[in-house]
Amino acid sequence: MSNSTHNGFEGSFLGDASRIDNHTKMECKICWYVYDPAQGDAQWQIPAGTPFSALPAHWRCPNCDGDSEQFMVLID
After folding, report:
1. Cβ(58)–Cβ(65) under 8 Å?
2. CA distance readout (Å), 11 to 28, 38, 49
3. Residue 6 burial (CB < 10 Å; 0-12/13-18/19+)?
């Protein structure tokens, strides 16, 4: 059992977006949608070049409406 007090998804970045590189692609663990900072997100009007860590707090997966903490680091 973990001694962590973190209440969010304990995935590849433990809900701490500051641990993610600005160019890292992130993948939704629910529907496998990939957020690519180079492309941004047209549905949420997020411009290209916006890192995952800079997404607004209300941003959700544009494909399945999953919370941003449900995303995992995508390793190419």
Report:
1. no
2. 11, 23, 24
3. exposed
Write out pLDDT tens, residues 31-69: 999 999 999 999 999 999 999 999 999 999 999 999 998
Taking the C-alpha atoms of residue 30 and residue 53, their distance in angstroms, rounded to an integer, is: 19
CB atoms within 10 A of CB 48: 11
8 A C-beta contact, residue 37 and residue 24: yes
Tell me the C-alpha distance between 40 and 12, whole Å: 21
Residue 19 backbone phi and psi in degrees, to 5: -85, -5
